[in-house]
Design goal:
Blueprint: E1 2-8, E2 15-27, E3 35-48, E4 55-71, E5 74-89, E6 92-108, E7 113-124, E8 129-143, E9 146-155, E10 171-178
Antiparallel strand pairs: 1-2, 2-3, 3-4, 4-5, 5-6, 6-7, 7-8, 8-9, 9-10
Length: 191
């Protein structure tokens, strides 16, 4: 998938130029539903010469997300991502290498209710900076493969490319999650 956007300023000189290119894969054994793998590589860039000083950001992100279901009532999710970014602002530049790790266990209390916890760590080599975030939530299955969750972020932080917005502030949150399966598109029955 790729997108490219450019818009020239109308009242002054300069332009806004953005691009985002993503390649990825997903894997799940056909006859079982105990393992899900998702991987992707993304290249993002933004250059804005409509503002003073000019802004030029570029990032390459690689990530791998694995969900293992050792028993039908327990899901263990792990995500690892690495991001290499380069930013230029007012003729100053910075390059940063970031590592992100997410651990998420989820336990089904009943067919409709579950509880989950999440721990996130972001390490940036520049400055030897380590940020931690963690949350707990309870979910309710509204309809098959659609869950409404309410949770609380005990500690949060912002990172525009690696951390979802819902986890970027401390306090309560509500989310809706959907699982797209072959059944939904009429491509076969999941085992």
């Amino acid at each position: 998938k790729g997108t490219y956007f450019r818009e020239d300023a109308r009242l002054m000189s300069g332009a806004l130029q953005q691009s985002d290119y993503v390649a990825g894969f997903a894997c799940r054994p056909a006859n079982t539903n105990w393992l899900n793998l998702i991987g992707k590589v993304e290249f993002k860039s933004q250059r804005n010469s409509c503002v003073i000083p000019d802004i030029d950001n570029r990032a390459t992100i690689g990530s791998m997300h694995m969900v293992v279901e050792p028993v039908p009532t327990l899901e263990l999710g792990v995500k690892y991502a690495i991001k290499s970014s380069h930013e230029v602002y007012d003729q100053m530049s910075a390059s940063v290498l970031s590592h992100f790790l997410l651990l998420r266990p989820q336990y089904d209390l009943t067919d409709f209710w579950n509880i989950a916890g999440e721990c996130r760590a972001l390490y940036q080599r520049v400055g030897q900076n380590l940020k931690l975030g963690y949350s707990a939530e309870m979910g309710f299955v509204i309809i098959k493969n659609t869950m409404l969750s309410a949770g609380y972020n005990f500690q949060a932080y912002r990172e525009r490319d690696l951390v979802e917005n819902v986890y970027s502030t401390e306090g309560p949150y509500v989310t809706v999650r959907m699982k797209l399966t072959e059944e939904l598109f009429g491509l076969g029955e999941a085992q």
